[in-house]
Amino acid sequence: MDFVPVDLSRHLDLCIAFRKDAYQVSFGHIQGFDVQEITAWLTSIAKDPQAAFFHVIKDSKIIGQLECRYPISDKKGLKFGYINLFYLVPEFRHQGLGRQLQKFLLKLFADHNCVYARLRYIPGNEAGERFYYKNGWRPVGKPGERGQLMQIDLLEVT
């Protein structure tokens, strides 16, 4: 598998389709999914020097997408990475590939002196929840309106 920076000028529609599917999986519906809002967000975050977007390539086919920001400093001055999207197309899920995506991102964060990583998932996304717990992620606080914040300590996994 390869991880290639996303070219929004060529793949914006694919990025939106992947985000739409992730939304469907997370919420069980697409009501509230706003293409214009997602397009504006992707376009603006792509200009952020702390943001990164990768397409996951297997056998010359784009099978997934990763979106993240790093390094971010917390209130104590510790650096961390934040995963905005962790996505595989349906036919490549449940094959162990998610661990490889996680390994890639956690190494990227560790290489930039991050000591932990965070993400959010929407309770009800049972497959996502199982994956995160099985692969070392732990909840931070209680679920809020934006989902459950999860964290993994990079010193324990890299």
Describe the model.
- The chain is an alpha+beta fold and 158 residues long.
- The protein has one domain: Gcn5-related N-acetyltransferase (GNAT) (Aminopeptidase), CATH 3.40.630.30.
- It has 5 helices and 7 strands; from the N terminus they run E-H-H-E-E-E-H-E-H-E-E-H.
- The chain has helices at 8-27, 35-45, 97-111, 126-134, 154-157, and strands spanning 2-5, 51-58, 61-73, 79-88, 116-121, 138-139, 148-153.
- It has a 7-stranded mixed beta sheet with strand order 1-2-3-4-5-7-6, with helices on both faces.
- Helix 1 crosses helix 2.
- It is globular, with a radius of gyration of 15 Å.
- The model has no long low-confidence stretch (mean pLDDT 95).
Count of DSSP-assigned helices? 5
> What is the succession of H and E elements?
EHHEEEHEHEEH
Which strands sit side by side, in order, in the main sheet? 1-2-3-4-5-7-6
- CATH fold node name: Aminopeptidase
Q: In the CATH hierarchy, what is the architecture at level 2?
A: 3-Layer(aba) Sandwich
Question: Which structural class do the helices and strands define?
Answer: alpha+beta
CATH fourth-tier homologous superfamily: Gcn5-related N-acetyltransferase (GNAT)
How confident is the prediction overall: mean pLDDT?
Answer: 95
Radius of gyration: 15 Å
Relative helix content: 25-40%
